[in-house]
Batch of 4 targets.
Target 1
Amino acid sequence: MFTIKEIVESLLNSKLEKFSIYVNDAFRSQEEGKTIFNIVLDSDEIIDLDKITEASRVINEIMDTTDQVEHDYDELDIYSKEKGEVESE
């Protein structure tokens, strides 16, 4: 039996390689009476908003069409791990 994280990694990581992004975690949570399916992305670099937006399009398409993940959630939340402050020059 695979964990949710392992299933999501197998579905997404090869498609996210072009963005230099990978799945760090995937889990369900309850917030304000809603079930949220969370996908946490990470990279060796800081992930900018444009990259998250592009990756989210790919992830949404895959998650909408897969039968490997139960669609018993109300919202899909995709976000990146925080890398700390960015120094500006």
Target 2
Amino acid sequence: MQITLELPEDIAQGLESKWTDLPRAALESLALEAYRSRALTAAQIRRLLGFETRMQVDVFLKQHEAYDFTAEDFEQDRETLRQLRAKEAQR
């Protein structure tokens, strides 16, 4: 699917002064919002933006502070760390 945006010339020029590749910036903005609202997965972001690896997606998401890490994830990681430390202490 191809989507066309029509912008007033002065607005387009202002945006292009900030983002040299305005079509790419628009696509990335769409991808980020879709990811944040859970409309797209990281795998879909990878395809949409043409990244070769998941690590590139992770870097992109981190640069834009789009983390997919909930408080529940944090608690689970904390519990895993506690269990690993307990095992290490038993040795």
Target 3
Amino acid sequence: MKTTKIIIILLAFVSSISFTSCVEDGNFEVPNSLGAEENAALTKLQAEATAGAVTEISIANLKGLLVNGQVTQITSDIYVKGYVTSSDQTGNFYKEFFIQDAPSNPTAAIKVVTEMVDSYNKFNIGREVYIKLKDLYIGESRTGDGVTAIGGGEFSAGRLGTLTTKQTDSHVLRAANSEEIVPIEVKFSEINDSHVGLFVKVQDAQFPTSLVGKTYVDANDQFDTQRLLESCDGFGYTNFILETSAFAEFKFSVLPAGGGSISAVVSKTFDGSDLVLALNKPTDVSMDGTRCTPLNISDFTVLIEEDFDTSVDNTVFNFPGWTNVAQAGTALWSEQVFSGNGYAEFSAFRTNNAVNIAWLISPGINMDTQTNEFLNFQVAQHHLDSPLNTLEVFVSTDFNGSNATTATWTPITYNKPVMSDAWYAFKDGGLIDISSYSGTLHVGFKFTGSGTDTTLDGAYMIDDFRVLAK
């Protein structure tokens, strides 16, 4: 009986020590020193790489192994190295983390899905990580979301399963060093699928005044809340989505009312329909400065302008100086009028063409008689169901006035419509610097879609085309 009492007292004493040490302040630094077993596993991998028994593959090339809609087992002796960009410390990420290919100026990132929770204790932001890929799998953890991930098997048809704890321990090896992750500075309009998993920073960002006083998460949302971000871009605002988990520790923190910057990881919505930003921690939002305001067009000289208000509703587009040509399929851009406003539109709906590629090309612009030229236009979409249904914008200095396919076209970045945008709602494409070009410049709008694939039969609209000088 005395022995039992002693054991109980000892257990209570040990428990009190454990409890006190766990809850002391909730903050600690992740140690850089590794256990002997971790050191041995990484040393062995590095020795095998030196001997040529295992080969390193880049994150970009690894993502190239993805077969859309399939989960693919890796059977080769290869490994990938990266640096952790996301953290589940605040609860905004769950059973996943991203790694990018360099601490600064990265070019690619990939997701790792694992059963491990509180992975930040081991795979903290900036941690250098080596993943032995043989017998692991590549796929999408959310079928069709377009985010390439490393996992432990096939959860269901076409859906990637998580790494088990054992697979994580034996395949995902951390080095002793943690590097500073330097965010890539981008505009909202520049973020695309290639940025998924990368840590980015956007300047001149703010929340719309309509959101001032609201919290990151709406109390009525069960899983995630999307809050609109905006940034001054040209004569209007460029918008982007900030998505926050209902399980994030900071979910009821109040959104800042000022302007400044936001640093976050680029991710996607659950179904992959839209790109979003996801915070590692709320202190990565620095918006205590002055809010930005769009530019004033009266400060610029208009070189060429077309508002399309003389359009004849639902006719083939035919404006002087403009070129309207079908590269694939038979459909052309059309003139449309709604509530007295004319605009150019291409819709693949009911074209009955398996592929529609159509160009709308502006008149030539003399770039040699002034400096500091900028391009600006309004753009909208309706019935857009897939990011593969695209509107690309290019410029050319050798377009011959008729054949779009023989010209040299340089892509330009603009504020693209996305599926979450309201249908028919025009937004500013941004103020696009084209001052580096000389000679005669043409701007080409290239639509790609399908009249037989219902996911690609959406429409794009162009209005208020302007070239300006300042």
Target 4
Amino acid sequence: MSSPLTYIDLFAGAGGMSEGFIKAGFQPIAHIEMNEEACQTMRTRAVYHYLKSSGNLDKYYRYIKGEIKQQELYEGIPVEILDSVINIEINDDTITGIFKRINKQGKEIDLIIGGPPCQAYSLLGRHHENIENDPRNKLYIQYGRFLKAFKPKAFVFENVPGLLSANKGQHFKNLKAYFRKIGYEVYHDTLDASDYGVIQARKRIIIVGWKKDNDFGFPEFTKIAKLFTVNDAFQDLPKLEPGGGEKKMEYSLNKNEYLNRFELRNGVDFVTQHISRPHNPRDLEIYKTAIEKWNEGEERLKYPDLPTHLKTHKNESSFLDRYKVVNGKGLAHTVVAHIAKDGHYYIHPDIKQCRSISVREAARLQSFPDDFYFEGSRSAAFKQIGNAVPPLMANAIAKKMNELLCKRNEK
């Protein structure tokens, strides 16, 4: 039996992309991420995968239930598992040290995955007047330095669609020219996460690079019919009041076809982090109005339409849709990191609950399985979820890359 293909995950976030690649049979050698809470989440997940492979998941379940502390969870875990998560910013000063840590493992690297922070390319980011001098715009060069150091057979680079138009398209031209210069044929396409089982309209640019001696072009990833809705994703979760929920709760219903088919309820008989924000009376009145408008006629609440006593500022010309209900009968709109700031853009469609969505509901919209545990505060968890690559989309990419890389090895 051949060894699994190996990879490094750059700018890894909480590990959403990595989750999809592990499920497709890849072996992670290193995850590099600058956010400490996201790294804590990835270490916990790395322990999950180790305990799963050794038949000791009960220990992990006890941890996410709150029955044991993290120190006890980590007891007996090989150092290389915990050290595979490298909590550091990738820059000129740190990159050589990162290379040394990875080289200590003595493993050949088959693939590099990941995408640099995308805020500079997003529609919101483009309001930043000094965008062309934003150092995040050149992080692809750091990515390329990993390609030069480890010479993987291929890479997968993920980012927002705004990458294509940044600096009138010149930035993307520079990126492609740079990757080609260092020995990779480069292809790209825009994928929608909803084509791969994710209950969310989320478009992302996927760039695939191949070593020039084994060029497979842009892979054809297998799409899945859109048969399910947000209500399917939320159906079995206990109903919550604003500020409600607990660290561990029982499901209110058996799993449905969506949850079973895509393995979101993957063996656990309890749900964690189904916790919602508290809301003040003013916001609750606005939420109620927004839910009624949406559920009765699929009409979005616009800020100028609010009664005077509910308005807090005079700006009625921008961000008019700052209160947005998630479409229960269809796909959710894109989940972004701003969900960590407030829940106004992610209001639950059930008027009886009248609140913004919980941490677990946001995780389900991003297709994280229910046994995926986010470390840190509630806000930190929301931020990690909003920044993540949906694991189901990542898995569709990973399965095809595995197939093509194995085909390459057979030559």
